[in-house]
Amino acid sequence: MSKERARRRxxxxxxxxxxxxxxxxxxxxRARRRxxxxxxxxRPVRFYRQGGLIARRRRAxxxxxxxxxxxxxxxxxxxxxxxxVSLAVLVFSLxxxxxxxxxxxxxxx
Length: 109
Known about the structure:
Elements (H helix, E strand, L loop, with lengths): L1 H39 L12 H27 L3 H22 L5
Helix pairs in contact: 2-3
Keywords: Membrane, Transmembrane, Transmembrane helix
Organism: Nonomuraea purpurea
Protein name: DUF3040 domain-containing protein
């Protein structure tokens, strides 16, 4: 009877040792994978807005130009309501936007 208990205890201990070995291998694999990901992942880059007078003025001008662009599109859509006309005005506005911004917000003065 005691030999049987000793044999079963030895089997249980062997099973626990195998489970511990598998668990250690799994943890080592996870640690290697985590280390690789840390090496391959780029550091986060923070973007800060420029805070100077020129940058604030440029942001304000871009907001005004964008609002004007949206208002023109809305007016055309409300007046004509035709998809081809709206698309034509959209393309024309996209082509004309740099010219209008250059003329309206001349930075040389």
